[in-house]
């Protein structure tokens, strides 16, 4: 039977008269990375703060590894790691001293071996004896993640983890988080405003609006179920010959000299380019429509129109 490491069940929260979280429910599958998306003020941070038990819900429950944060709070939150606000790292201490400090603070029994393990996981071994004030922002982010992983949580929640990182920092963090999910089976919930980043990082995205889940969007092909069709644009010459080849791959047409090809798999793009090149076609560029961006705007704007 499939188990869900995190289940959010009909959460409600009001601040004064403002009902900001309305019957919010969703569940996360093990080892998958979920984006948590929504416009400013839609309730992402409030939901996350309830999940990690920083604030209480008015009604509803959160189950972490099947344990309720209401009735088994300690057990439940022992399975969760989170960076909600900036982690309080100590700049004048080394990375290793920071980890040792947080290991002592942790309620679980964090061994020296575990400290070494998380250091290797976030690839900070070489920097462990440097003072944290000399770390780059990306290194600080990774040290923050190492701290949140010390007690071996099965669910990791990150609020805007790529904020302020440069492109290399973003790519390194993405690779690392994907390894954590695929190799260690950690389940991730990542809030971000960067739709492109969520699209390449996550398996799925939970889209919320005004405190309610409006949809869950899949970014990958799920067990044989095709994703919604994506539109690949290809610039190649000679264009007629290229079109004839591409027509064997799916619906293909030409608009203003650019070929549009319908595909269901992101991974088919390199195969198609290779087929064109080996048949003597010169390929000048390819791009594809950002599905998540389309879904996000249609989901979040649709409601605004119907509400008005
Ligand atoms: N402590 C609080 N007291 C009163 N209102 C609050 C409090 N915390 C959040 N809110 C309100 O709840 C709503 C949801 O806020 P929240 O910060 O959860 O949204 P968000 O989706 O994380 O937004 P952003 O993308 O801007 O970070 C907002 O209208 C916000 O003003």
UniProtKB/TrEMBL annotation:
Pfam families: ABC_tran (PF00005)
PROSITE patterns referenced in this protein's UniProt entry, alphabetically: ABC_TRANSPORTER_1, ABC_TRANSPORTER_2
Residues in ABC transporter domain copies: 6-235
A single GO molecular function term of this UniProt record: ATP binding
Domain of life of the source: Bacteria
TM stretches of this protein: none
Keyword terms: ATP-binding, Nucleotide-binding, Transport
Nucleotide-binding found in the keyword field: yes
SUPFAM superfamilies per the UniProt record, alphabetical: P-loop containing nucleoside triphosphate hydrolases
Similarity remark: Belongs to the ABC transporter superfamily.
Protein name: ABC-2 type transport system ATP-binding protein
Organism the protein comes from: Shouchella xiaoxiensis
Highest classification ranks of the organism: Bacteria, Bacillati, Bacillota, Bacilli, Bacillales
